What we know:
The protein is an alpha+beta fold and 140 residues long. It is built from 7 helices and 4 strands. The protein has helices at 12-16, 20-29, 44-50, 60-67, 82-90, 103-107, 122-132; strands spanning 3-10, 33-40, 72-80, 116-118. The longest helix is centred in the last third of the chain and has 11 residues, at 122-132. The radius of gyration is 14 Å and the shape is globular. The protein binds adenosine-3',5'-cyclic-monophosphate. The site of adenosine-3',5'-cyclic-monophosphate has 8 residues, from loops.
Amino acid sequence: MTKERTFSIIKPDATRRNLTGKINAKFEEKGLRVVAQKRLHMTQEMAERFYAVHKERPFYKDLVKFMTSGPVVVQVLEGNDAVALNRKVMGATNPANAEPGTIRKEFAESIEANSVHGSDSPENAKNEIAFFFSETEIVG
Ligand code: CMP
């Protein structure tokens, strides 16, 4: 097992329901450490750039609208195999398919308002972390 970092977003549906602490508790219980974190309101331009890989998907416009609808908490999580571990802790993208005990099973409202985003590969984690954080803001 190798120590690794992944990028996470607590989405507007979760900040609206004051779930930041409960979601962080899930990460910490499973061995993920929050080594950087900030709350911000994404602009349309930021959300469009962040989700540019989904530009051609039918849900892109709604996704950008949703991600700019309220504050988010962007985070760097650190732990053994953090990318894969975080995906396990989050559960399936669609909460209807998420395992019991996962964040999305317990908290998500829908496939769009699914409470959290997590990087899907170590390479994307690097890029997504760099999108929001400088190295000096990450304290392991
Ligand atoms: P996320 O990990 O943030 O990456 C892209 C997001 O698009 C995804 O989580 C979902 O919340 C959102 N989304 C909305 N509709 C769909 C869909 N039909 N299929 C996949 N993702 C969707």
